[in-house]
Design a protein that fits this description.
Number of domains: 1
CATH topology: SH3 type barrels
CATH class: Mainly Beta
Number of strands: 6
Number of helices: 3
Helix content: 25-40%
Strand order of the largest sheet: 4-5-3-2-1-6
Strand content: 25-35%
Shape: globular
CATH architecture: Roll
Length: about 130
């Protein structure tokens, strides 16, 4: 089962390089979650959520959450990709980074609209 804070190594659609990908939400009733890729920090990176060596065992150089690579995925999709060997499950990331990632997704202009919509929907449900 995929849960909030889980991480896996995954290549985006048009890439072959595996990126650490973080699950930022619990699955909703339709099994959808928000994920975001972690990439190496560069001078032009959006440094809203910086990650340093030691923040996760896979992170070996200064990195950031790349909100342009935030996605709405289904638990089934993630589990199938892992089962096929196209992704590798890694250690969970600390809750403080999950919270920062969710906030960053909502603040960044690079975040896709469907991601923002699902995060806002889930935040509204948690207020009830």
């Amino acid at each position: 089962m995929v849960a909030c804070g889980d991480t896996f190594l995954f290549a985006e659609e048009d890439e072959t390089k595996l990126h650490l990908t973080v699950v930022l939400t619990e699955p909703d009733d339709d099994g959808r979650v928000v994920t975001v890729a972690v990439v190496t920090r560069h001078s032009r990176s959006d440094a809203m959520v910086p990650l340093e060596v030691g923040d996760h065992p896979f992170i070996t150089r200064p990195s950031v959450m790349a909100f342009a690579y935030a996605r709405v995925r289904t638990v089934t999709e993630i589990e199938n990709v892992i089962r096929k060997g196209d992704a590798v499950k890694r250690e969970p990331i600390a809750e403080k980074f999950v919270r920062r990632g969710r906030s960053g997704c909502l603040e960044s202009e690079d975040t896709p609209g469907d991601v923002v919509e699902l995060l806002n929907q889930q935040a509204g449900e948690n207020e009830d």
